[in-house]
Write a structure and sequence with these properties.
Shape: elongated
Radius of gyration: 23 Å
CATH superfamily of the largest domain: Phosphoenolpyruvate-binding domains
Bound molecules: 3-methyl-2-oxobutanoic acid
CATH class of the largest domain: Alpha Beta
Structural class: alpha/beta
Oligomer: single chain
Order of helices and strands: HEHEHHEHEHEHHEHEEHHH
CATH topology of the largest domain: TIM Barrel
Length: 280
């Protein structure tokens, strides 16, 4: 059964926690679906973990469509949310609707995600009016890295915490079906989760959110350039991949790869005939 905004909303009501991971390619998305993930986010974090940029600001609509379409081809029951990249919606409500539409039509997404609070409520309403579900994103919003002056925990003072709660309520009122809370104190995220009727998805926001999301290269220990306190390493694939690559290189040097089992046979007769022909 395909997950939808309705099934995700039911999770909030029933108390079943929503599991989400980021995904950027066909093969990984397929493995995630086989593992039973509820939803995947084609995050603009792909700029860092797949494309090697310093932050998410250089990611384009074409990047997002390319990766989103690959992920969408890899899953059938998993709900696919795709990030709207920097400057694909901030410029105008019109741009927001057009670009959200492209992520659905060309990128195969089921919903889009955009960052911000009061300033994007009009955009959220317009996109949802076009029948495109919108996930909000509050707290640490990486597209505002230059305005924040760094990756910092958000909502720690009374004023900042009230502001975050107000923005979450505004995003819900604008029509968002869910909201990501990133780098927010756990007790504040719990309060926001209790106040909202839509599901909250936490990343660095504690266990009381309605669901959790992690960047998969972070949780698998494949990307070690930025290390956040909230990441749990379920694997150390960077080490395991290095070992595998080293073994392969050694095998090639020692000519122990490819073995007979990796090669295709041909009748000796054919080769003998060719050799005789060459000698003439
Ligand atoms: O781009 C991304 O991966 C995200 C998650 C961190 C929520 O926005």
């Amino acid at each position: 059964m395909k997950n939808t905004i309705v099934s995700l909303q039911k999770c909030k009501t029933s108390g079943k926690k929503i599991s989400m991971l980021t995904a950027y390619d066909y093969a990984t998305a397929k493995i995630m679906e086989q593992s039973g993930i509820d939803a995947v986010l084609v995050g603009d974090s792909l700029g860092m973990v797949c494309l090697g940029y310093e932050n998410t600001l250089s990611v384009t609509m074409e990047d997002m469509i390319h990766h989103s379409a690959a992920v969408a081809r890899g899953v059938s029951s998993v709900f696919v949310v795709t990030d709207m990249p920097f400057m694909s919606y901030q410029t105008s409500v019109y741009d927001a609707v057009v670009n959200a539409g492209r992520l659905i039509k060309e990128g195969g997404a089921n919903a889009v995600k955009l960052e911000g609070g009061f300033e994007v409520c009009e955009h959220i309403t317009a996109i949802t009016r076009a029948s495109i579900p919108v996930m909000g994103h509050l707290g640490l919003t990486p597209q505002s890295i230059n305005a924040f002056g760094g990756y910092k925990v958000q909502g720690k003072t009374e004023q900042a915490a009230q502001n975050l709660l107000d923005q979450a309520l505004a995003v819900e009122k604008a029509g968002a079906f869910s909201v990501v809370l990133e780098c927010v104190p756990a007790k504040l995220a719990a309060l926001v989760t209790a106040e909202l009727s839509i599901p909250t998805i936490g990343i660095g926001a504690g266990a009381q959110c309605d669901g959790q999301i992690l960047v998969y290269q972070d949780m698998l220990g494949m990307y070690n350039e930025v290390s956040a306190k909230f990441v749990k390493h379920y694997e150390n694939l960077s080490e395991r991949m290095t070992e595998a690559f080293k073994t392969y290189i050694a095998d090639v040097q020692a000519q122990t790869f490819p073995g007979v089992e990796h090669t295709y046979a041909i009748d000796d007769e054919v080769i003998d005939t060719l050799k005789k022909r060459e000698k003439k």
